Structures are given as structure tokens and as C-alpha cells.
Amino acid sequence: MNLTPSTLPRIVIIGGGAGGLELATRLGHRLGRKQAQILLVDRNPSHLWKPRLHEVAAGLIGSGDDETNYLAHGCVHGFDFALGSLLSIDSVGKTVTLDRVLSSADNTEVLGERTLPYDMLVLALGSRVNDFGIPGVLEYCHMLDSPAQALKLQRAFLESAIQVGAGRLDRVRVGIVGAGATGVELAAELYHAVHAMERWGGLGASGKLDITLVDMASRILPAIDPKTSRHATKVLEKLGVRILLGESVERVTADALHLKSGATVPCEIKVWASGVSGHDTVAGLKGLSLTPGNRIKVDHHLACDGAADIFAIGDCAAAPAHIGNALVPPTAQVAHQQAAYLAKLIERRLSGRTVGPFKYRPRGTLVSLGEGGAAGEFPTFRYSQSIFPANGSLAKVLYVSLYHMHRVALHGWLRAAALFLADRLRRTTLPPVKLH
To answer: What is the pairing mode between strands 37-42 and 10-14?
Structure first.
């Protein structure tokens, strides 16, 4: 990381998720190190596309297989990287303070607190699931907000399958709270993973897996068209997933989910995939206007309310939709469009030009259903309320293409194609599921 004084405009991006890393890459290409000094900050040294975390949790990919190293990527694409977590913002003095970095081996200090200047600041902090203050959630439930959490869940699932194979457990029992995309995709992929474990590792747990999906909504995937939801329901039920709708969790214990209706869902592995909230760090940042869920309020240009030269994108931003009073959804699709828009805005602003407001263009929704394909829908025309459904194998092909388009945004077409080919070759020599 280059911290030497510079006369170039200093653009600091906090958060290397889908939006933050794409923004840093685009600005690096457009402005390089000649027209601006671009610095990406993240508490982790590498990036993994968040929509793939359920595959990491099921053991279908290793977290290292698809990670992008920030230092190496920045060296190639014209930006610098700093390791650390955001501690505070001084919007008057235009500085950010990063918390100290501790060693994962012995908890000793690797880097101390640092204060970095900025001319423009972009917050791309992401989000976490909302535990809603329910007792036991933080203590007993797995989350899927980071690769580390996904790996922890993968390890717990594998160990349970090993215990079933050894006769120490009767069944692998999993309770998932939240029937949105994350919960539905995880349920489907766990069934795929347990069959792969039996075929490739001899673990006889494929007929001994119980998954219960719990949601207070009246149907799974409540944000999409009912026809698409019904298709996904049929696929999950065919796999054997038990779906409990219109139910909410009152408390969580070590061995069960306890519902407000009085019912109990016995499960050793519990996953919380319900609700979206901003990180606790956001609540302590001065000068920002926040929603009750700790998301940062921004205007139609993604500028933070009441804070000059500070922008927010991705899940951490509560951005208004250009039609009606709704907010744009916290999805990777939105983060991608916001990164492209803000890169253009920053480039034009540095040359004294302006750009119109951000307009989210819905491109459709796709949800993976494991080997059973995918469920999806697409608007037939821009701003149209009519939906074109795409389910099964075609939807699966389109779903897989989303990740490759993310790779194209980061690496370009040639390198993305090479990475795709490397993936296919790796799968011919390795088991399709992690057994360690």
C-alpha cells in the first residue's frame, strides 16, 4: 500500500465485496495511478463472491478455489489495498481510521490503528443477517455472511455426516430459518452434497438427512412471482425438505428451534438466513443518516445524506428506487449496477462534469436448486410488471453465467474464460464435494 503524499485525488473504498471490488477495478482501469490514487480497504486479504457462500457451506467448492487476492488484483488493475476494518470517519477533516489488525495465530498486533486521508470516500461495507434480538440465535446458529462462517458450517455438516456413517448419530438434522434465496439454495445444495459424500467418500448419510425450512411468510421465495415460488417448492419437497410456513422462531437452544406456535424443530445444525441488517460498525459512524436496520441512507446519486463527498453502495446502502418510495433490494445485481454507475459518476466529477441519478434496472431473479436446476424469472420489458419464468436446466445455465459475468467485470473476458476452463479441468480430477 502506497501511503506517500500525493497531489492526485484520493479515492478510498471501504469494503471489497461485489460492489466495492468492482468499483475499485473499474476506477483502476479508468483513472489508474495517473489521474487518481485509489485505495481499497477490507478486513480480509481476499474476495469471495457472496452468492457462492452457500456452495462453500455445502462443501461443493472450497473458499480458496474462487477467491481473488486484493493485493495481486490491485497490482494488475491500478489500485492499492490496505488490510483493516473501519473504526471511524472524520467527515470534516476527511479522514478514516482503521482498527488494528491482530494475528490469527497468536492474537498479537500485526498493524496498529491508522488514519488515512480521502477526497472521496465510498462505503461498501456489505450486510449481515438480522437476528432480531431472538434469544439463542447468535449463540447457536450458523450464519452465511463470510467465508469463515461458511467454512464453519461446512465443517459441522461434514462431521455430522461422518458421525452418522460411524453409527454415532441416527440422522443429520438441519434447521434453516429463512426461506429466501439463501435458505432455499442452501437446503437444495446440502442434499446434493450428502449424496456426493456417499458416492465419493462412502459416508452413508444420504438417506438420513432431515432439513426443515422455517419462515413466517406464506410461501418460500416471497419476493418473487408465486409461480416461480411454487416450482421451487415442488423441487424442495421432492428432495425431502420439510417446509414450515407462517411460523416464527421464539428462541433457539443447542438442540432445537422453538417456534412461537409451541412447535419444536429438533436439529443439531441450525442456520439463520433471515433478514438483512447493517453491520454494528455502521451504528457508531458519526455524520451518517441511518435506517432502523443500520443501513446508510443515500440519495439518488448514492451520496450519503448530510455527508459531503461520501457515498455508499451495495447492501449497506438504503438507496431509493427511481419508481415509487421503495428501496432497491440488497442483492449482488444491485451492487454491480451501483459500482458501474458510481465509477462513471466519480470519473465525470473529477473532470467537472455531472451525471444523472442512479436508476436500478431489474434483470430478473435466479435461485439455484442444486442438481434440480434453478428457478428464475425475468421482466418481459423494461418497467413491465409481466414476468417470463425460466425454470429447470435453462435457468441453471443462466444462474451459473451470473458468476462468470462477475468474473468478467473483475478480470476481463480472456482471463474469465481461462478461469472457467480451469474450473472444468479441476472438476475432472477432484471429488465434487469437500471431504476434509
So the answer is: parallel
